[in-house]
């Protein structure tokens, strides 16, 4: 019987001067991890003071019963981008054990608290769910009115190169982003999805396409709505030349985009272009590919942020 992991990563991000120059502020991190999660080398040498945080899942993949929890507190004025070191694999669970033929769920919980004037980006590499895999992700984000949060989710259902599909596996996702006030919680975005069974083949689902992706950006409150509407137009224009079905829409304070198709490369390229456009609107640096992504194609050569 395969052992189950219960891994955690607790991460605190805060602004601090790294030398005697009080103007030379960088985002510094403190972390505590338990196996199979660990941090690789963290870089905080970005021009905009942003911290680059790579999380490694040191096991060979995720199996049924694994429980992963990632807690992040992004303190006042901090800036960071957090990603996974490699694409993550979720092994098949259903029909693999006579004791538990229905399989066991693997779960990942992400709890993010983004404080005043903080800017946090969550951009893991893609998740690959093998046939019969059961995976659920629950992400909860608490935002200050002045803060910003951006996340990308990209999943491949089945090992396409091996002519494999998800079969009787299931992928579930829950994303809740909210701000608190004297009147209680105000939800900026709430999204619950399940991809399995008929939804994999239906014209209202994936239409047998193996790749699904989502992009969400929540801005600080009070953003210029004209600028946000202009951003939406530019985001839709960036679909040119990329195969797949892509949609993009406005939120009250932000944008949401979806991708369905056969190419993780196309999804990455489009999301990178949108990501870059949001950085322009934030008056921040155009994103560079993280050091832990050396084998992925660089989409910036086709980027138009004018």
Short summary of the structure?
This protein is mainly beta and 306 residues long.
Write the layout of secondary structure elements.
Elements: E1 6-17, E2 25-34, E3 37-39, E4 51-57, E5 67-74, E6 79-84, E7 88-90, E8 106-114, E9 119-122, E10 127-129, E11 134-143, E12 148-157, E13 170-181, E14 184-195, E15 211-218, H1 225-237, E16 245-251, E17 254-261, H2 264-281
Parallel strand pairs: 1-5, 4-6, 5-8, 6-9, 7-10, 8-11, 9-12, 10-12, 11-13
Antiparallel strand pairs: 1-2, 3-4, 12-15, 13-14, 15-17, 16-17
Helix pairs in contact: 1-2
Textual characterization of the structure:
The structure is a single chain. The protein has 306 residues and is mainly beta. It has one domain. Helix 1 packs antiparallel against helix 2. It has two helices and 17 strands. The mean pLDDT is 90. Helix content is 10%, strand content 43%. Strands 3, 4, 6, 7, 9, 10, 12, 15, 16 and 17 form a ten-stranded mixed sheet that branches. A seven-stranded mixed sheet has the order 2-1-5-8-11-13-14, with no helix packed on it.
What coarse outline follows from CA principal-axis ratios?
globular
Decide which structural class fits the backbone.
mainly beta
Number of helices: 2
Give the percentage of residues in beta strands.
Answer: 35-45%
The number of domains is 1
Radius of gyration (Å): 19 Å
Kindly report how far apart the N and C termini lie. Answer: 56 Å
Q: How do the helices and strands follow one another from N- to C-terminus?
A: EEEEEEEEEEEEEEEHEEH
What is the count of β-strands? 17
Q: Can you tell me the residue ranges where pLDDT is under 50 for at least 5 consecutive residues?
A: none
**Arithmetic mean of pLDDT:** 90
The helix fraction, in percent, is: 10-25%
The major β-sheet equals: 10 strands, mixed
């Amino acid at each position: 019987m395969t052992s189950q992991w219960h891994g955690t990563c607790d991460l605190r991000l805060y602004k601090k001067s790294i030398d005697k120059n009080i103007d030379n502020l960088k985002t510094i991190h403190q972390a505590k991890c338990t196996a199979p999660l660990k941090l690789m080398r963290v870089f905080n040498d970005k021009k905009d003071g942003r911290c680059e945080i790579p999380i490694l899942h040191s096991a060979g993949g995720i199996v049924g019963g694994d429980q992963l929890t990632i807690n992040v507190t992004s303190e006042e004025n901090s800036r960071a981008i957090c990603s996974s070191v490699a694409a993550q694999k979720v092994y098949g669970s259903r029909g693999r054990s006579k004791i538990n033929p229905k399989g066991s769920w693997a779960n990942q919980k992400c709890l993010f608290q983004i404080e005043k004037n903080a800017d946090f980006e969550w951009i893991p590499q893609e998740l690959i769910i093998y046939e019969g895999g059961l995976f659920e992700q629950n992400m909860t984000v608490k935002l200050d009115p002045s803060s910003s949060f951006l996340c990308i989710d990209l999943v491949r259902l089945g090992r396409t190169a091996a002519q494999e599909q998800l079969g009787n596996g299931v992928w579930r996702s829950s994303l809740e982003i909210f701000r608190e006030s004297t009147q209680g919680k105000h939800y900026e975005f709430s999204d619950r999805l399940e991809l399995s069974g008929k939804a994999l083949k239906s014209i209202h689902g994936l239409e047998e396409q193996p790749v699904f992706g989502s992009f969400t950006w929540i801005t600080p409150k009070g953003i210029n709505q004209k600028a946000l509407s202009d951003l939406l137009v530019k985001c839709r224009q960036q679909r040119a030349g990329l195969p797949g079905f892509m949609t993009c829409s406005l939120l009250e304070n932000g944008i949401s985009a979806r991708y369905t198709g056969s190419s993780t490369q196309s999804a990455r390229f489009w999301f990178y272009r949108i990501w870059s456009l949001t950085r322009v609107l934030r008056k921040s640096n155009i994103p560079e590919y993280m050091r832990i992504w050396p084998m992925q194609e660089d989409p910036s050569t086709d980027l138009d942020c004018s």
